[in-house]
Amino acid sequence: MIYFLLAYEFFKIGLFSFGGGYATIPFLYHLSQIYNWYTIPELEHMTAIAGITPGPVGINVATYAGYKTAGILGSLIATTFEVLPSFICVIIVSKLIKNYSDNFYVKSVIESLKPISCALLLSVGVNLLKTELHNVYSLILLFVLLLISRKSKKDPILYMIIAGVSGAFLKLL
Amino acid sequence: MKQLSLLNLFLIFVKTGAILLGGGYVILPIMQSEFAEKKNLVSKEDLINYFALSQSMPGIIAANMSMFIGYKLRGKRGALIAMFGIIFVPFLCIILLASLLSMFVNNTILQGTLWGVGIAVIALIFLTAREVWTNAQRTLFFYIMFLFAFISLMMFNLTPITVIIIFSVLGVAVKCIQRGLIK
After folding, report:
1. pLDDT per residue over B99-150, tens digit each?
2. Would an 8 Å CB–CB cutoff place B66 in contact with chain A?
3. How large is the angle between the packed helices A2-16 and A25-34, nearest 10 degrees?
4. How far apart, in whole angstroms, are the C-alpha atoms of residue A74 and residue A143?
5. Which of A97, A131, B18, B100 could form a disulfide with B89 if both were Cys (CB 3.0 to 4.6 A apart)?
6. Can you tell me the distance from the alpha carbon of A5 to that of B179, in angstroms, rounded to the nearest whole number?
7. What is the rounded CA–CA span in Å between residue B98 and residue A49?
8. Nearest to B124, CA basis, from B48, B29, B38
């Protein structure tokens, strides 16, 4: 029975959460209030862990919450049912793009997405940077990383390793 | 572009899931590096479109984007494989490491590493924005759409989904007017 409930609740989360991982957290708060699956401090703890393990935060929290509630099978159900609604949406949208790629309206939407994506990325970058502005080391590290990008091709893994190691090193000093 | 086996597709997504740290927006640079630069399987143009579409749909951005790529390469089965691939490592990490990691949440070295990765994420986001900018056909349409979208994001605190929907509709309207003027 708990498995059906988990499937139902996480399907709903997948269907109604817009805007990525952290958007699922309010729904999980709500769940902790109506069921005794986990407590709110436990949820905060789960969110912290989900943020530092690899993978999308929304998926990680779902896995963790499912695991807390009903073990490994629970985590499998929670995760799968959370992505199921978007799976259906992706298939429908992909078909639309494929079949109507010559359609004037579809082409216009796709052409509009480029400047919008660019604006989105820039605004996220600026907003993230604002929280780091008080810290000189952050700005130096950012500057060094941007300098490296002029010399070599941008490789996300390389960047994360360099920055992660220098971060750990700075904290030890 | 040659067809990719389902196993290889799965493995690429497993790798992508393993290096995905620091929130949804870093997904675009990671996918561009894995699928466009290293393997040349999907064009950067397509990836930018999937990125925007993924945000205007329900669900987790990274999962949505993986399923778009999977579908593009191998249809419905590809999308399913992509979904399981991207959650594979994160899933194992949570199941196996969660209890272990919870002891280290306040550890200084871990905190420092995470802070560093956070800066790398900012750098990657800026670099990707610059790349989208340089690779786009910068018509008057592009500049105007970009400017107004950026202003509404920064000044009016609109959520990404609102901006994507409003500006897609505006974009279509502008294109309609342009077409009308040419005719």
Report:
1. 776 677 677 888 888 888 888 888 888 888 888 888 788 889 999 999 999 9
2. no
3. 150
4. 44
5. B18
6. 52
7. 7
8. B29
Write out B86-123 in H/E/C secondary structure.
HHHHHHHHHHHHHHHHCCCCCCHHHHHHHHHHHHHHHH
Summarize pLDDT for A114-170 with one digit per residue, the tens. Answer: 898 889 889 888 888 888 777 888 888 888 888 888 777 667 778 888 888 888 888
Hey, are the CB atoms on B94 and A166 less than 8 Å from each other?
Answer: no
Q: Which two tokens stand for residue B11?
A: 């493995």
DSSP state of B38: I
Alpha helices by DSSP H, listed for A1-135, are 2-16, 25-34, 40-52, 57-99, 104-132
Entry pTM:
0.81
**Cα(first)–Cα(last) distance of chain B, in Å?**
38
Of the residues B16, B66, B81, B115, the best mutation for testing chain A's interface (the one with the most A CB atoms within 10 Å of its CB) is B115
CA angle A130, A134, A139 (to 5 degrees): 75
ipTM of the complex: 0.81
Are the C-beta atoms of A13 and A27 separated by less than 8 Å?
A: yes
